[in-house]
Structures are given as structure tokens and as C-alpha cells.
Amino acid sequence: MKKWLTKGALLRTISISLVLIIVIVGLVLHTDWGSYSALGIGELIALCPLGYLETFFASRLFIPRAFVVFLGVLLITIVLGKVFCAWICPFPLTQRLLARITNKFFPKNTPADTEAIDTEVPKRARLDTRLLTLVGVLGASLFAGFPVFCLVCPLGLTFALIAGIVYLITGGASLGLTFLFIPVFLVLELLFFRRWCSKICPLGALYALISRGNRFFRPHIDAEACLSLSGRTECSHCYQVCKEHIDIRATQTTKTLADCSKCRDCSDVCPVHAVSFPVLPKKKPDAD
Amino acid sequence: MLKGGKITRREFIASGIAAVAVLTGALNFRVKKLLCRPPGAQTEKRFLSLCVRCNRCVEACPQRVIEPVLFGGLLELRTPWLNFRKSYCNFCHDAGGLKTPLPPQCVVVCPTAALGTLKLNPAFTLNKETGYSKEVRTFSIGLAKINTDFCPQHCDVCKKACPYFAIELDDNGYAFLTENRCNGCGACEFYCPEEYVSKTGEIMRAVTVVPNGARLDSV
Fold first, then answer.
1. What CATH number labels B119-211?
2. pLDDT per residue over A239-273, tens digit each?
3. Which residue out of A146, A158, A165 would a mutagenesis test of the B interface target, given it has the greatest number of B Cβ atoms within 10 Å?
4. Which end of chain A has the least Cβ crowding within 10 Å, N or C?
5. Structural domain spans, chain B
């Protein structure tokens, strides 16, 4: 049985919980910190890049301040990569925990944590269905005149559910029947779309697109230490553990590494500690 | 694609159905009446297209009059509205003082300018004689509407509550509104002691604020 709470997983859980706690404290104490859609203090904010693009298309208005914030988020993502998915977004963690529970009670369900990973490396890049959702969502926003994905975004719904419960206790807002839409949709997304992150999420697609420009903190594999690359055994732990299905043993292009959320699972799982995340890319014959 | 890719046919169909359901549901299932939006929300259409439902204005409001919509239609869900039964809007006057008014907190914190930048009039000072200048209405929330059928004679609660001196009593002792002074701040509705049940079963007050959106783009 593999150890499931590695150092990386623990750090990630702490990071995700911290953001969640900040959001909830802000909600209860009536600060202006906001939620996952826009988090910040006063005029200093981080805005959901997908939210910005959606409102841009829906309203067809150029809002200079929002655009500057959007550029800021772009810059952070280029420097740090797709860290949002592993270190901030609570959805994948909740989904894995929920899968663990449901698998316990209904063992006949699909085995493994979330999805079975085939060890064989695909020869050809698969069609990224998330990009289709991204284009679809932006197109729908343009047509409908409101940010379409914001209505069903699991992050927004998670926050709305917490807010609803808080307001129910404190009497901060009146709840109607439509409120039920929030938990129902959230549960649907959590339970029935087990591949939400890798196949549907347009926000992940957008972050992956942006982090194609990322050059820092990229996983680096020591070819001499690696059991697989040096030909000693057929070890593929790092590939099997990767939630983004990246095989770091193969020569990487910026396109495939763009999906790396810097979760450090590959580094944790490597039996010979051959994987590291250096700040600057180490010199290596890299196909770009 | 369905077999080679990791998305199954069932998931694909389910997501398609969900997307269609959400779209049609959002478009058809709406709040029956317009809601009062925080100051700076211009037309309802513009507001709904820019709001990312981040809840910041709700949290930033010092008056705690802004609430998220957790009822009604899917399209309005989680957007902010002003509940004048709980409190009223003071346009955060205390923040900048009356001589150098700052934009309201909700406008300051809005990340996408769904609550847009307000054109603040330098001559925006409180005058006991005339109330606020007429330009104030360019960023008003709505317009108070007095239901004379239920408004009690000689009651001057709303008159006393109004910071803009927009409500006065006529010769018969009934309240009437000077429209160009009304900012839709909701103080009159908040203090109004007279409640009645409308034909649709809603609890109404003798004075209610009708949102601006209705006047601006007649949704």
C-alpha cells in the first residue's frame, strides 16, 4: 500500500486549507477579501483570469483596471506555472477525498483514487477537451451576455455553499429554493465528473495555456540517477503518480510541461530522488 | 475521440445535457421583478455581464445592506442586491467626509467594474435647503415609490429618514416624493412602519424603492 500522505500532499493540503480559511474568515468577519473569483485587500486583487475573459466577452467592454489585474495574474502564472490547480483550488482535493469515501462504501465502483492511469505513453497528443470547453464557454458568454461558466464553476459553487450556510446561521441573507441548485450541481460535478480537472475544466485549460510561457520551477530529472532512464529497471512511478499525465522521463516540450501544477508528487514518489524542481531550468538537451 | 480520449460517451452526453439545461434554465428562470443593485451598477444587462459573483461588495459593505441573491433565478444567483429591510445605503459618506466624497466601498472593491466608477460631482455637498444636487442621480440606485393606498396620514417617518429631503408631506398629510432629489438609498423603506401583503403574496412596505435598471434599459 502506497503512502498517500506524502510531504508534498501535506504541504498542498495546508496551502489549500489556508486559502479556504482566509475566504471563510473574510466571509464571517465582513472584510473585503472576497472569494476565489477575486481575492484581495481593497484595490489590490487577484482576479480569476477566466472570469475576466468571460466578462470581457459578455460585456464587450474594456475595463482597464480589470485588464491590469488580469495581466498581473498572467505574469504570476508565467513565473510560477499552473500552481493554482495543485496549491489553491480545493476541487481536486475534495474530489479525491470524496472518491476515497465512496469507494469505501461502494467498493464495486471504479477502483483507484480517481481514475486508472495507463502506464503506456501515448504516441500522439490527445485532443485536449478542456480547450473545447474554454472556447465554448467564452463563445457562450459572448452570445448570452453573461459569464456562463461562473454560474456552474465548482469553485464559485463551493464558496456559495459555504456562504449560504454561514448566512443561514447568522441570518445574513434570505435563502430561496434556487439555493438548492448550488449543492446539487456541486455534488454532480464532484461525483459524476471524475475527470473534471483533466477533461472539462476551462480554468485549468486557460492556466495551462498561459503557463506555456513558464520556465521556472520545472521538474528536472537526473538521467544518471533515474532507474528508468539509466536502464536499470522499468520504473514509472513518477508517470503513474502524475495527476496531469505528464511523463517527465520523456523529452519535454513547453506544451506538455505547461500542465505541470508543481505538486511535487513525482519528486516525492521517486525511489532514488532523481526528480527536483530547480528555480531555473538546468542545462540539458531539451526539445522546445 | 471518445474511445481513445479519456472522456467517456456518458460523460460527454451528461455534460452536454447539463450545459443546455443551465443555459435554458438561466435564460428562462429569472427573478420576476428587478432587484435593487449596489450603487454604480448601471443597466441590469451591463451589470449581469460584468459581475463575476465574487461576493466582495457584500463583504465590504459597512452598512451590511448588500446581500448575495440566494433565491430566484439561476442567472441572478450569487449576484449582489440591496435588502432595504435590513439596512439602507449611505453611499459610504462617512468614508471621505462630505466635502471630499470617496466612491462607495462596494465600487472600490469590485474587480471588474460591474459596479462602475462613479462620476463624483465636486459640488456634491449636503445642503439643508436643497438636498443633494441633481447630478447625484447619475449614480442613484433607484427611485422611491410611495403607495398612497397604504401610506398612513400624518406619518412622517420616511420624511425624517430621507437624507436628501426628497419626501415631504402634502396639505392632506400624505407623503409625496420630489423625484429629482431621490437617490434610491432605501432609508425611507428601511424605516417605513407600514407593511401590507401584495396581490402576489409578498410583504410590501408603503414606500419601496424601484430599481434603476427598470428605468434605464427596461429589461
1. 3.30.70.20
2. 888 888 888 888 666 667 888 999 999 999 999 99
3. A146
4. N
5. 1-118, 119-211
